[in-house]
Amino acid sequence: MRELFIVFQRDFLAHANTRGFVISTVLVPILISAMFVLPAMINASSTRKLALVNEAPASVGAAFTRALSDAPRSDRDNRYTIAPVAGPFESLRASLNERVLTKEFDGYVVIPADVLSGAKILYRAQSVSSPRVIFDLQLAAQRAVQTERLSHEEVDASVMKVLWERVDVDSVRVTAQGEKPGSAVSGFLFAYLIAFLIYMLTVMYGAAILRSVFEEKTNRISEIVVSSVPSGRFLAGKILGVGAAAMLQVTIWVVVIFGVLGLPALASKMQLSEGTLSVLAIDPGVAISFVVFFLLGFFLYASMFAALGSAVTSEQEAQSMQGLLFLPIIVPLLFIGAIINDPDGRPSQLLSLIPFTSPVAMPMRLASAPVPPSEILVSAIVLALTLAAITWAAGKIYRIGILSTGKRPNLAELYRWVRAS
């Protein structure tokens, strides 16, 4: 065990006591905060001045204008200033286009005379790529047209106002400890953060282990080391040392983001409610599950990268082959919608049982809904057994691979290495 600790200490300091480690430790929390704060600032509400050409009954144009001019429900809702323009549209088309090009108007809307019969309203602007603007115009036109149609049926205006009142959804999670506030946004946010963190650390430190093993193999340093230290302990110490550096960096990131920056201030800039962020107040048992799957998954991929570094014979081979190791961990990200929408569905259960996808899939399920303890236990056991098998095989491959040069071994040769050593 003394040899393992020496290797652990050496590789930990080799990664933690570097300028790159310090820089990334400082910059990553800033970049993560900016990743959530800046989009919220960029997607903030804007005021748009639109010209309106109404060829339908005057009441339709008035209702459309009222719907767009109503006070916004939140700071993220767009604000509109409507300027009516009289005259048939065809005679105004050229001048309206010119006024849009000169920035007098952000755009213009045309309500055709037969809009009550199902005709489309027209929206012209230099940019029509904003889904929020299109939704606002569509909703305002829909309310104006339906109000006019109901008025023909002699429905009272007060009744129509009640009909258009928005109904919100108060979403609450039912747990064994009682009801807890939550939302679709909070579930998606937390699941995405977990998946992103695991993927990022695997990419960063898995590749670091691969490079470290390959460099030692190339420089023949490992030949000297393994003459006095068993190859299995040497590789285990290397993986644990790099893993400890990764855990230290993650701890610093969490403390800085949620401690120094302050969760309430960050939530305010992201315009998230307390209910949305309440999902972060997770149960201790779930928190332990997150840590277990994170550690098991990280060391599983670290062992795979170490084995790859032992087998390849050139840096080009390492770069081309490491992309294959990233594929299993990307799969749950492709199914993030299915996992969040149906955490107990067949795809979610399958991905959380496959050891190469469960480090990401299971935490995403836990962030979305309660998971039966039996499924968590089975998934963790399968993942741990796979980790033990991969680590054992990686040590066997490392023992022969560090002495192997020239031709890259194929799968059959790797199998012989594992059996022979």
Provide a descriptive summary of the structure in words.
With 421 residues, the chain is of the alpha/beta class. The chain has two domains: 2-40 and 183-420, no CATH class; 45-163, D-Maltodextrin-Binding Protein, domain 2 (3-Layer(aba) Sandwich). The chain is 68% helix and 7% strand. The protein contains 18 helices and six strands. The chain has helices at residues 2-16, 19-42, 58-69, 89-101, 131-152, 157-163, 184-219, 221-225, 231-260, 263-270, 274-277, 284-311, 315-334, 336-341, 346-353, 358-368, 373-401, 411-420; strands at residues 47-54, 79-84, 107-111, 122-125, 172-175, 178-181. Strands 2-1-3-4 form a four-stranded mixed sheet, sandwiched between helices. A two-stranded antiparallel ribbon has the order 5-6. Helix 3 (58-69) links the parallel strand 1 (47-54) and strand 2. It is elongated. The mean pLDDT is 75.
Tags for this entry?
421 residues; alpha/beta; D-Maltodextrin-Binding Protein, domain 2; 2 domains; four-stranded mixed sheet; two-stranded antiparallel ribbon; 18 helices
